[in-house]
Amino acid sequence: MKTAFIPVAAKLAIQFQVSHTAIASLTAVPLIFSSITGLASVTASKIWGKRPVYLLSMVFLFIGSLWNMRSTTFGTTLGARIFQGIGWGAFDTLILSSIHDTYFGHQRNPRLAAYDILQAATAWGPPLLSGVAMRNAGRFEIHFEILNTFFIVAIPLLAFAAPETAYDR
């Protein structure tokens, strides 16, 4: 999701009538917000646990994705991307600690390797696939429509199937 606009940056610059630097801010500004919320989510997870932080972050991601699906101007797209950036922070910082909380030291390596592979695949796979989808559909919103179908499945799974991993020891 972070790299969603890479394949269509030139098209968006023309559509929104802004510079390529402004289009790059659609990726840069959410990353700044994600770094801030990443720090905040680590603190919040120590107080309330990781599961509520994950759920709240997923809601921010979903709101941002829904908003992006219907955005028609640069300002609304940037606002939606900021919401997504707020949601990214927890997933950038807490997943590794959840793996460390859940598994013993000798069990972690395959899980960490799987996480690293999935992280790379989800960072660089969607621009390749969404570029084709956006070209064939003729609009950039199709990427977020596809993402929202995954969110519709992922949110209930996170709410009902993901356990709390932070415990007092």
TrEMBL record:
SUPFAM superfamilies: MFS general substrate transporter. The chain crosses the membrane at residues 12-33, 53-69, 144-162. This is Major facilitator superfamily (MFS) profile domain-containing protein. It is found in: Membrane. The keyword Transport applies. It is a multi-pass membrane protein. Keywords: Membrane, Transmembrane, Transmembrane helix, Transport. One of its GO terms (molecular function) is transmembrane transporter activity. The lineage of its organism: Eukaryota, Fungi, Dikarya, Ascomycota, Pezizomycotina. It comes from Verticillium longisporum. GO terms for cellular component: plasma membrane. InterPro entries: MFS (IPR011701), MFS_dom (IPR020846), MFS_trans_sf (IPR036259). Residues 1-169 form the Major facilitator superfamily (MFS) profile domain. The keyword Plastid does not apply. It comes from the Eukaryota.
